[in-house]
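User: I'm curious whether this sequence folds into something compact or stays loose and floppy. Could you predict its structure so I can see for myself?
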Amino acid sequence: MNANFEHLLGRGVAEVIVLEEMRQKLRAGRPLRLKLGFDPSKPDLHIGHAVILRKIRQFQDLGHQVILIVGDWTAQIGDPSGRDESRHMLSAEEVRANAQTYIEQFSLIVDSQRTEVRWQSEWFGEFSLEDVFQLTSRFTLAQMMQHETFRRRYEEGLPLSLMELLYPLLQAYDSVAIRADVEFGGTDQKFNILAGRELQSSLGLEPQQVLLAPLLLGTDGRKMSKSFGNTIDLTAPAKDMYGKVMSLADEVMMDYFFNVTDVPTEELGEMQRAWEHDETHPMELKKRLAREIVGQFYDAQATAEAEAEFERVFQEGRAPSEMTRYDLVKETALVDLLHQSGLAPSKSQARRLIQQGAVKLDGERLDDPMSSLSPGDIPAEGGLLQVGKRRFLQLRSPPGAA
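Assistant: Here's the prediction. I'll summarize afterward.
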């Protein structure tokens, strides 16, 4: 077996179904049709998505054809994978706007010039009721109940519409429509992707192979998700991206090295050994990780500046070189100020931050949630309002402020 194929099917891969069949397809040497579908209800991409996108780019660089499917039809249903409640349907305008955002960010990793973009409405737009019946006849309710989320919602008496049960079937039909050889997705998409394989086989087509990518943990240790607010976004400024990588738990570092960097596998093994034997400091490994990740999206200068900024703020305890400025024109409740300036997402969170002692003005703790700040409290050269270790605001008192 070609060593490059072993790397292709091993690193950054959680599971291949069916591994030997996939190897045979690669050995055959013909360009494979690679399917990746996306739900345009969630257009913003993060490092968790980069795992599968990097793998697709590797296949693409070997001459295989990427077909990106815009799920404009299924987005109006909502992907139920991993969810315990129904999702609202999107308008066609929302889908188009989100799809454009997705494609722009997708192109940060995958070569869009060598990608074929298809919209589900190309085939579902003319689907008849007879076509729907023909599709649903290929699956049983028992098969649908093997879907963990469906089963849990049904057993707990939560709403589960027949429309949602159609989602895996529609995604499966995408594979038939484009004659997919391989479908890519995260491990949370396994049920839906296998449905495509089953449908192809039942229609007398060669079943697609399945390549599943692992799910990364976010900055708070939970699955990386926009809904948790724990993502490292692909479009984040270099300094923010670097800082968020540095905030990851030490325990997930090697997963990130393995899945979203090009550091040679042999070198990763040595890094793991050195770390386990206390021969290297986790901080230095994490800095290497941050450089590797930021360097995929920014040039060397921006990456170096991001590292210098991290060292300045978090290791030397100094204020950031660049901060948002806020003009305090009148006496303002501290809770309102934190919320209005964006240092706290809500007033209730602002109160908690103050009570926890996380808020400081020029190094002095502000621990009274009922307190206010007025322009007279701000030095002429400006004041530094800080929340925790990562959020800063340059307060100014403009001339004439009361």
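Summary: The first helix runs from residue 3 to 10. The mean pLDDT is 86.
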